[in-house]
Amino acid sequence: LVTRSFLAVPRRTTIGVDHNRVALLVAVLEKKLGAKLFDQDIFVNVAGGVHVEEPAVDLGIVVAIAWSSREEELDGKTVFFGEVGLAGEIRGISQVEARVKEAGKLGFERCVLPSSNCAQLKHITHPQLSGVGSLSECWKLIF
Q: pTM above the 0.85 mark?
């Protein structure tokens, strides 16, 4: 959830993910994509009381924050996997085939994932796979 703040220092609240990791992702989003989040309260919550330390959730967090700041509804049939680096690059992740297959079983129709992982998944036809190497590529693909 991203909403306008009326405080001198906007709130950054996280539940289930590392606060510092989210702060880093917000900084990358501002620096590399020009997002204006300096006056926004940002709340990130992982449902179900789970604590996630897996860097593969980075891309999903960044997309959710960006989408919420634009006040648009996120496509519920697309899943995002990938570690986001300081330069805005999307790094490859482990166990990608198992993640994609599970996403398909859960009803997702599209997976946006690191392009470095896409080459090894050419045999998968469902869900649809879209490889991205950077946040800017991801934005061109989804916005």
A: yes
